[in-house]
Design goal:
The complex is a heterotrimer of chains A (about 260), B (about 525) and C (about 325). Chain A has helices at about 50-55, 75-80, 100, 105-110, 115-125, 140-155, 170-190, 200-205, 240-255, and strands at about 5-15, 20-35, 40, 65-70, 85, 160-165, 190-195, 210-215, 220-225. In chain A, a hairpin with a 4-residue loop joins strand 1 and strand 2. Chain A is α/β, with parallel strands linked by helices. Chain A is about 35% helix and about 25% strand. Chain A is built from 9 helices and 9 strands. Chain A has a domain at about 5-80 and about 160-255: Rossmann fold, CATH 3.40.50. The longest helix of chain A has 18 residues, at about 170-190. Chain A has a 6-stranded mixed β-sheet with strand order 5-6-7-3-8-9, sandwiched between helices. A 3-stranded antiparallel β-sheet of chain A has the order 2-1-4. Chain B folds into 2 domains: about 40-255, MetI-like fold (Orthogonal Bundle); about 300-524, MetI-like (MetI-like fold), CATH 1.10.3720.10. Chain B is about 80% helix and about 0% strand. In chain B, helix 19 runs antiparallel to helix 21. Chain C has 2 domains: about 1-115 and about 210-325, D-Maltodextrin-Binding Protein, domain 2; about 115-210, D-Maltodextrin-Binding Protein, domain 2 (3-Layer(aba) Sandwich), CATH 3.40.190. Helices cover about 40% and strands about 15% of the residues of chain C. In chain C, the strands form 2 sheets. In chain C, strands 2-1-3-10-4 form a 5-stranded mixed β-sheet, with helices on both faces. Chain C starts with a helix and ends with a helix. The chains are: A alpha/beta (about 260), B mainly alpha (about 525), C alpha/beta (about 325). Chains in contact: A-B, B-C. The interface between B and C is large, with 62 and 58 residues.
Chain lengths: ~260, ~525, ~325
């Protein structure tokens, strides 16, 4: 079922103990993302989207069930340099320049930076930050910082890419631009991608499939296929099919 | 922006100048303590006259303080890293840490002189002076690292070591540097204290003890000034380095997630075991060290020997009474001095945000109070304040406030810009910003500062008692030293350490629930 | 200190190799002997400085290492830990340690026949005898409080009528009138007071019943057994040093200005004053360091007043007898 670089969650549960209460963040969740697919996770706040992502990244352990990335345990996949991640917050190191921040995963994985100098330069170009190579995060706008985070997530040529609301902090115009860019990058890399998002339009525009989640307990209630042709241009946003899919997802979110 | 800094600099320079002029006038006209406060000009003249005396003394002090600074801080940073990475080690080491911090230098100096000679007591006292501040700053710095960065590294499979090297060490740098900044005057003073008592030939402390009998305040102030200059230089160097790094370390946005910690999930039996361990380890170390050094039992009291002295000997009851009577005199003033010292430090820290110019002007004065050996100031203080509680309280404040102030100011300056933007957007005054954002956001630092201040209060009271009032534990210590009452020397040292630990634990007990309620973690 | 020792050892080694053939007479090297002084380098130790400089110890086959003292140096402790072989102490603390803690000390000599400690005050507010202290503030180093209490008791003055505060090495509070009198070496402080333009008066505790020695020469019982020859040699050479010193008490201090007194922070004039003032307190018929039976008896009596049960056996005069 899962290819060499797929994401697989099998009846995963995770609960958190608070002060006297237990929150069932994920309840028996299963999800298969075949190799090279793009899956969007959408749902209301607190439905367990981020928990699911943290489990897939190996940052957290499931109470029960199994998580595998390309057939490996999440941490092993990460150590093998197969994954890339961009968080909701850019989480840049304030003392590292743009290019040094982009190179961080290489430093973590112990890959020599000089072998990747061209790669870093092309990524900076790709996210439109040429000329800011030596700038510190404090000197950048929020959008620019987020683009650094995207570039950083791609620097290892990941086979599996995790994006946790990477454009949540950006304005609508920039966000659409970034969506188009991301699609271009994704088509070029064909990395198996899991995108956590709040934006229905973003999900429809980027994903092959949209997994809709509900909270209390956190679970996946529907998976909707997005049969739009690729590459999708900016005009897709105005198409009737696009709006129909948006409505379908909105309905699913409302429990229909 | 640029004009603002120049204006601020100008204002601090003005403060400086005004202070100097007032001082000069007071000194010239013998306004303060009928001339016991010499004018700056006569101090400088005296320095010039004595200039040939200074080089060997300064070199010796530099050696003692410098080597102690390197050793003490080296150990401190290593220990800080260890404690930050392994909460269990931190819990186990707590007893040793607090004991080292609370060790009254005046009590251990004679003990060090007994067993070591030459530079060693100076180096040890200087190193001990550095250890706690730097160790705790390192832990604070590391544990306050932005959790989001750590997540990124972990997401790429980075382990503890990678997280430490790539994120935590660099992010802790400003905190470590601010620790070093406080450690520098401590090292100088530690060395001078050992020189003063230890019977060597060179060192500013040696020069001081010889000069004390001359009744020449300008000479004493000159020596104090030389000490301040050494410490001030070290302070300035680390401030400059810190300035370079702090800007680039300040988080751009507010971390949404609370720094994680495993401490809460320990089972009760483990917590009990660790607590017991943290108490047993310093006692075991005390015992082992004495065995290792082979000091004769008459001088070196082991825990058992001390117990015997205090409870089993025929004159144990008399010893107990003496100790309790001294405690009765010392304790109330310690608590009052503690409160005043912390309040003073907090006021200064707020001022450093509200009126940075004045604080910059005040910093040299603050440094003088840290490096000027109190014994040189005693006549002046006694003449101004008499020999009552007010003298004790002033000395206690001066011994207490500095590390607390630097830590609090550090906390206030680390508040992220974005957090201040919200109240600022609503036109909040600087004071309101402090009240609503800066103070609550730097709460871990405020508590850490209080923990730094608390054991020092006892030290301050003991010094004042020893030098001026002839009461309490400080006097008992000095008297026992003269009577070769080694049991009492150890008893006072151990009791003062225990008391400091109790005060420290009280702060921790308040700190924990307060910070937990706010989703913060204590800065170690 | 370290530097000089190392240099000396280093030079010694050099000498031993280079001058080997000529060294026949001194075939065995001098025995190392460590001396712990009671205070920082000042005129109180002139005799020992001269004995080192003039080679008197070497003549006795001793290679003496001199440790300066200081406020934190407890002289008795250094002979317990073995850092020093011989030291100078105050007899009250030494005997108290023997009696109460069973410390293995023997007093084998006394530098000061009369304890130089006294009550110093300003001539304009003079305190000439213990009774004058009533209603006054007196600064006393905490270690000496019992001595003062003994003197007051012997003189029939109620302790509660004297306000005793700690004395912290600096006579400024006395000069400025914050205190009325202080307890210190009368050989030293009056000079400082004169320097500041005031006039000082003083009296010795010794003259009001507290008849004890000071700078008593103390060794451990074991050292007295195992190193008797060296100890006797030390006393003999030190006596020679003191005799030499008092041949020119005003001249000798200046000759040590660049060696022993370098960088002490004190002035040579002060040392001259000290050296002159201490002469009458040291000189005695039996020669320097001697302890006559009457003097020992007076010590025992005075110490009894402070509650210290001194005995004749705490004093050992045999070494003195040996060196004549």
């Amino acid at each position: 079922m899962t290819g060499p670089s797929g994401i697989r969650l099998d009846t995963v549960s995770r609960s958190f103990k608070g002060r006297g209460t237990t929150v069932q963040a994920l309840d028996n969740v299963s999800l298969d993302c075949p190799a090279g697919s793009f899956t969007a996770l959408i749902g209301p706040s607190g439905c367990g989207k981020s928990t699911l992502l943290r489990l897939a990244l190996g940052l957290d352990q499931a109470d029960s069930g199994e998580v595998s990335i390309a057939g490996l345990a999440p941490m092993d996949a990460a150590r093998a340099g197969m994954t890339g991640v961009a968080f909701q917050d850019a989480a840049l190191m304030p003392w590292r320049s743009v290019e040094d921040n982009i190179a961080l995963p290489l430093d973590v994985l112990g890959q020599p930076r000089r072998d990747n100098a061209a790669k870093i330069a092309s990524l900076i170009d790709l996210v439109g930050l040429a000329g800011f190579e030596k700038a510190l995060p404090g000197e950048l706008s929020g959008g620019m910082r987020q683009r650094v985070a995207i570039a950083r997530s791609l620097v290892t040529n990941p086979q599996v890419l995790f994006l946790d609301e990477p454009f949540g902090a950006l304005d609508q115009i920039l966000r659409r631009q970034m969506n188009v860019e991301l699609q271009r990058i994704w088509i070029a890399s064909r990395a198996t991608t899991l995108l956590v998002t709040h934006g229905i339009d973003e999900a429809v525009f980027l994903a092959d499939r949209v997994a809709v989640m509900q909270s209390k307990p956190g679970r996946i209630t529907r998976i909707i296929d997005i049969p739009l042709m690729r590459p999708r241009g900016p005009d897709v946003f105005t198409s009737a099919e696009f709006h129909r899919l948006e409505d379908e997802i909105a309905g699913a979110l409302n429990g229909h | 922006m640029a004009t603002e800094t120049i204006a601020a600099r100008g204002s601090s320079l003005r403060t400086w100048l005004v202070l100097l002029i007032i001082w000069e006038i007071c000194g010239r006209l013998q306004l303060i303590a009928s001339g016991a406060l010499p004018a700056p000009s006569s101090i400088l003249m005296r320095l010039w006259i004595d200039r040939a005396d200074y080089p060997p003394h300064i070199l010796a002090t530099l050696e003692g303080a410098g080597v102690g600074f390197l050793i003490g801080n080296g150990i401190a940073v290593a220990a800080g890293v260890l404690f930050a990475l392994f909460p269990m080690a931190a819990r186990l080491g707590r007893g040793v840490n607090i004991a080292l911090f609370a060790l009254p230098a005046i009590a251990i100096s004679p003990l060090l002189v007994l067993t070591f000679s030459d530079m060693t007591p100076r180096i040890i006292l200087a190193a001990i002076g550095c250890y706690f501040v730097t160790m705790s700053s390192t832990v604070t710095g590391i544990s306050q690292t932005d959790q989001r960065m750590i997540e990124v590294i972990r997401a790429y499979g980075g382990g503890r070591w990678k997280i430490l090297v790539l994120a935590q060490m660099r992010s802790a740098l400003p905190a470590i540097l601010s620790g070093l900044r406080i450690a520098a005057p401590n090292a100088v003073l530690g060395s001078i204290l050992a020189e003063f008592g230890g019977g060597g030939r060179y060192g500013l402390g040696v020069y001081l003890i010889g000069s004390l009998g001359r009744a020449e305040p300008d000479r004493l102030w000159g020596i104090g000034l030389a000490a301040t200059l050494i410490a001030g230089l070290a302070y300035a160097v680390f401030s400059l380095i810190a300035l370079r790094f702090t800007g680039a370390t300040k988080a751009v946005t507010v971390p949404a997630t609370a720094p994680g910690g495993a401490t809460m999930s320990w089972p009760l039996w483990l917590r009990l075991l660790l607590s017991t361990g943290s108490v047993v380890i310093p006692i075991a170390l005390w015992w082992l060290l004495l065995i290792a050094m082979g000091t004769p039992a008459m001088i070196a009291k082991t825990p058992l020997g001390l117990f015997e002295y205090l409870f089993l000997q025929p004159n144990s009851q008399a010893s107990q009474m003496k100790l309790l009577a001294a405690l009765g005199q010392t304790l109330p003033l310690t608590i009052a001095g503690m409160a005043l010292g912390i309040a003073f430090a907090f006021g200064l820290a707020l001022m450093s945000v509200l009126r940075p110019g004045i604080i910059r002007g005040f910093m040299p004065v603050a440094l003088v109070t840290q490096t000027m050996p109190l014994v040189a100031l005693t006549p002046l203080l006694v003449l101004i304040l008499g020999r009552g509680p007010s003298l004790i309280l002033w000395i206690t404040i001066s011994v207490t406030f500095f590390p607390a102030f630097v830590t609090m100011a550090q906390g206030l300056s680390m508040v992220p810009r974005a957090a201040l933007d919200v109240p600022r957007a609503y036109g909040a005054s600087l004071f309101t910003q402090l009240r609503l954002v800066s103070v609550p956001a730097s709460l871990p630092y405020l508590f850490a500062a209080t923990r730094l201040a608390v054991p020092r209060a006892l030290l301050g009271v003991m010094i004042a008692e020893w030098l001026a009032t002839g009461t309490g534990l400080g006097n008992l210590l000095n008297q026992s030293r003269g009577y070769l009452d080694y049991g009492m020397i150890w008893a006072v040292a151990v009791v003062s350490v225990l008391l400091s630990v109790v005060f420290y634990q009280c702060v921790v007990l308040i700190e924990r629930p307060v910070l937990a309620r706010r989703g913060m973690r204590a800065a170690q | 200190m370290n530097l000089t020792i190392d240099r000396r050892r280093f030079l010694g080694l050099l000498g031993a190799t280079a001058a080997f053939p000529a060294m026949g007479r001194h075939a065995h090297a001098a025995t190392p002997f460590n001396f712990q002084a009671a205070w920082i380098n000042d005129a109180e130790f002139m005799g020992y400085f001269l004995a080192i400089d003039k080679g008197y110890y070497k003549d006795e086959g001793l290679d003496v290492t001199y440790f300066s003292g200081g406020p934190d140096v407890i002289p008795e402790s250094t002979i317990i830990t073995g850092k020093a072989d011989l030291t100078l102490t105050t007899p009250d603390t030494t005997i108290k340690a023997i009696v109460e803690q069973g410390a293995p000390f023997k007093i084998i000599g006394a530098q000061y026949q009369k304890n130089p400690i006294g009550i110093v005050s300003l001539a304009k507010n003079p305190i000439m005898e213990p009774k004058d202290l009533i209603g006054k503030t007196l600064a006393v180093p905490p270690v000496n409080v019992i001595s003062v209490e003994a003197m007051l008791k012997i003189s029939g003055v109620d302790r509660a009528q004297v306000n005793i505060v700690p004395y912290a090495y600096d006579p400024t509070p006395l000069i400025k009138g914050e205190i009325d009198a202080s307890l210190d070496f009368t050989t030293n402080v009056p000079f400082t007071i004169q320097q500041s333009g005031a006039e000082a008066v003083s009296f010795l505790l010794y003259d009001f019943g507290f008849t004890i020695f000071n700078d008593t020469v103390v060794v451990t019982e074991e050292a007295l057994k195992t190193k008797r020859k060296e100890i006797a040699g030390f006393l003999k050479a030190s006596r020679k040093g003191w005799i030499e010193n008092f041949k020119d008490p005003t001249g000798y201090p200046a000759t040590l200005a660049d060696t022993w007194f370098k960088g002490t922070g004190r002035s040579i004039e002060n040392e001259v004053y000290f050296n002159t003032a201490q002469q009458p307190l040291m000189e005695t018929d039996g020669g320097f360091f001697s302890m006559s039976e009457e003097a020992i008896a007076a010590n025992i009596k005075a110490l009894a007043a402070v509650g210290i049960a001194a005995k004749r056996e705490h004093f050992d005069t045999t070494v003195l007898e040996e060196i004549g």
